[in-house]
Amino acid sequence: MSAPLRQIPVARPLLGEQEAEALRRVVLSGWVTQGPEVAAFEAEFAALTGAPHACAVSNCTTALHLALLALGIGAGDEVVTVSHTFVATANAIRYCGAVPVFVDIESDGFNIDPSLVEAAMTPRTKAILCVHQLGMPCALQRLATIAAAHGVPLVEDAACATGSEILWDGRWEKIGKPHGTVACFSFHPRKVVTTGDGGMLTTADPALDAKFRLWRQHGMSVTDAARHGSPVVIFERYPELGFNYRMTDLQAAVGREQLRRLPGIVEERRRIAREYDEALAAIPGIATPVEPRWARSNWQSYCVDVSRLGSQRTIMQILLDQGISTRRGIMNIHLEDAYAGPGSFRCGSSLNRSVEAQNGSIILPLFSGMSDADVWATAEALEAIARSSGPSPAPARSVRPRSEAADLARKAPSAA
Ligand SMILES: *Cc1c(COP(=O)(O)O)cnc(C)c1O
């Protein structure tokens, strides 16, 4: 008899009795959308991130749309961002009638290269939209300096970064304080905490927060909860064009339980990432991800460069044949047909590193409850591939520990 095939998923949400109980409580309360649970979830998320305001919405894509609209992004404007990200990042720019301007990622990571941003800016640039890809904080300090120097807002696509941290003025702070003007989060099941679908906007600007709240529920002047609770008759007004971007109380109640689990989830993911670092260290040809000195990832994903080992698809298939699920590196938006039309985007730099990262890296399994044995089994499978692939050419891109000098260069203000 052969041993049962091992099954290692690439990701798995951590949901259990607490979330089931929370849903039961909300169902039986009779109030199921944007009510007290949403308000409590927002307050708890604000406390977690240190943000003055947190506004819950239906997902991160709608969060990004509202953020850009509230900042006045409109037809003909340009927003500098990356192509190496999930398609929703740039879609939100296009929903506003604006044009995404793509710049490349760093040579030693999967985030925007801040040294390319200024050259991509024009008088039409109305915002910088950075992404904390895979949960790894991007170079926020340098981006904030550039944004301030040019008088444009910095929007953070923090879809993957709930619980990630950055060293800011000598203190560790949560992503979403926010360090830019607005940060947008996702609670899709592929992220570290989930509400099924869901999103959150955080900001320090009360005027922006007021716009998010108005526009997420049809531009209606009074909330359902306020009208319902009022002792006097209220006729609502619709002063502005809005959307239905509400989060339900069912989702928020699940989200509150997920936030309680978050510290444990992030701690476990960090432990698994360190285990991978150790297990993969001796394998020639694999470049493991690196945390800059000033960042602490939540390890939403652990992505390695395997371009020296051979074809990405072949490697993924060999792993899948052994029951190990992986995903290819993050997509490139500029290569998709939805962006083939004239005026869909502009290139703000070469995008070679973005293409190499999409085609030469894979996301390894990392989920709550993953055993060390699963980590080492994955590493052993990769080692066997490395052994059989023979001497390899130089890496297409290096994802190696940064030198101290590079770190210092990153901290320098971007005067150029
Ligand atoms: C998941 C993700 C989104 C979209 O989030 P939804 O909640 O599914 O709308 C946007 N940007 C990035 C970088 C993501 O990873």
UniProtKB/TrEMBL annotation:
<dbReference type="InterPro" id="IPR015421">
    <property type="entry name" value="PyrdxlP-dep_Trfase_major"/>
</dbReference>
<keyword id="KW-0032">Aminotransferase</keyword>
<dbReference type="InterPro" id="IPR015424">
    <property type="entry name" value="PyrdxlP-dep_Trfase"/>
</dbReference>
<comment type="pathway">
    <text>Bacterial outer membrane biogenesis; LPS O-antigen biosynthesis.</text>
</comment>
<dbReference type="Pfam" id="PF01041">
    <property type="entry name" value="DegT_DnrJ_EryC1"/>
</dbReference>
<comment type="similarity">
    <text>Belongs to the DegT/DnrJ/EryC1 family.</text>
</comment>
<dbReference type="InterPro" id="IPR000653">
    <property type="entry name" value="DegT/StrS_aminotransferase"/>
</dbReference>
<keyword id="KW-0663">Pyridoxal phosphate</keyword>
<feature type="modified residue" description="N6-(pyridoxal phosphate)lysine">
    <location>
        <position position="191"/>
    </location>
</feature>
<feature type="compositionally biased region" description="Basic and acidic residues">
    <location>
        <begin position="401"/>
        <end position="410"/>
    </location>
</feature>
<feature type="active site" description="Proton acceptor">
    <location>
        <position position="191"/>
    </location>
</feature>
<feature type="compositionally biased region" description="Low complexity">
    <location>
        <begin position="387"/>
        <end position="398"/>
    </location>
</feature>
<dbReference type="InterPro" id="IPR015422">
    <property type="entry name" value="PyrdxlP-dep_Trfase_small"/>
</dbReference>
<keyword id="KW-0808">Transferase</keyword>
<dbReference type="GO" id="GO:0000271">
    <property type="term" value="P:polysaccharide biosynthetic process"/>
</dbReference>
<feature type="region of interest" description="Disordered">
    <location>
        <begin position="387"/>
        <end position="416"/>
    </location>
</feature>
<dbReference type="GO" id="GO:0102933">
    <property type="term" value="F:GDP-4-dehydro-6-deoxy-D-mannose-4-aminotransferase activity"/>
</dbReference>
<dbReference type="GO" id="GO:0030170">
    <property type="term" value="F:pyridoxal phosphate binding"/>
</dbReference>
<protein>
    <recommendedName>
        <fullName>GDP-perosamine synthase</fullName>
        <ecNumber>2.6.1.102</ecNumber>
    </recommendedName>
</protein>
